[in-house]
User: Fold these one by one.
Assistant:
Number 1:
Amino acid sequence: MRFAHLDYAASAPCVRAAADAVQDLIPWCGSVHRGTGIRSRTSTRAYERARERVATFVGARPADAVVFTRNTTDALNLLARALPDGTTTIVFDTEHHANLLPWPRQLRLPCPETPDEAVAAVERALATVRGPALVAVTAASNVTGEIWPVRRIADVAHAHGARVAVDAAQLAPHSPVLLTDLGVDYLAFSGHKLYAPFGAGVLAGRSDWLDAAPPYLSGGGASAAVGDQPGDVTWTTGPARHEGGTPNLLGAAALGAVCAALHRADRAALQAREQELLARLRDGLTTIPGAVEVTAFRGAAPRVGIVSLALPGHDPARIATHLADRYGIGVRAGQFCAHPLTRRLIAGQATTPCGDGTPGLLRVSFGLGTRDDDVDRLVSALGALISTRS
Ligand SMILES: Cc1ncc(COP(=O)(O)O)c(C=O)c1O
């Protein structure tokens, strides 16, 4: 039986462009930025080419930096450490923990009921902030798939002299993420959610705060000159300042290759196809007794191919295990590293906790390889499991 991977929001399978980029580079792997031999030169070229491809993918402006990180978590932690002293970060409590926990001095806003309310809440919060401010917001929720009004939040933030960082981990695989179109200052995303699972991620955006901040990792590559006394160091500027040590060449090359492939692809067609799958799934779910699709916003909002379900009377973790073991379907159960949001979505639903006693939802998510029959198989398997009260 074909395995139906419906857990793209966690990690997406490697696509050919990423695998080929890695395969092609393996014979040439050498030290990036640190040698004159053919391997070193080839590796340096490949690494910087990957950076250019990512820059094109995010529509980087001339003064923007593209820094390779390990993943979105790493990228947002890097930005959090680069904030000017006294910066207040405004975040909603709906964020993934990667975009909730790193910010040192934060003003946390409760989940808004609508996108309009999200924009208004940011505006009200900004009016109370003195000193530098950053709004850190997700572009698409990893729990509900709902798309946040990033452009409007950015307009409000900029009118107040604040900056905006976007957690694009879930939007980048589904839709173009151009800094200019979104109107934001920083974007972070992960290779493993973008079909390039080789351990690279990205922070892209304005270089001034990054160049003024202490290096994220002190060491070789980040340092331009080191004197004899402790602390006698001249740090580099640009991406190298925050990429101390030997970088993840294969991860960057794989991610750059996928960014280039997606940039060339007809993304409007891919998005239309994904919306068809989403409609098929949501239609099918109406036949599952008691299943409730959860959303943060009241009313319909645009969304990517992610759906989370409350399954009253059923342990979502057990259902997920049965889907895998009996039907060859991979989904995810739990709170998806977004505990405050998941708790809120579950409140008021008569859900059964997961086996470990924690509340949870069942999440289904799509990507480029998802087929109609994957969705149909999931719906019929869920129907069978729910009716037999597993
Ligand atoms: C919206 C969102 N932000 C951040 C992350 C963290 O990504 P990573 O684990 O690749 O750092 C995730 C991962 O699920 C996510 O869905």
Number 2:
Amino acid sequence: MPIYEFCCNECGLKFEQLRPMSRVDEDASCPRCNNGAKRIPSVFSAFSKSSGGESAPVGGGSGCATCSSSSCHSCH
Ligand SMILES: [Zn+2]
């Protein structure tokens, strides 16, 4: 069950609550003042380590600084 963060509309208290996916859009009630609390969009899921999108060219061991090709028999 995922955990969600809520912020109380009334007293501003932030708290976390476990709840099933099917009830994710329901408001929670503040544990301090019992008023309605809105869900804060999850921060940690936005920052999950999925930054493997870029495919930087990897120097394959045989390249050199003066030529960009992987086999530099032309520049030596
Ligand atoms: Zn409250």
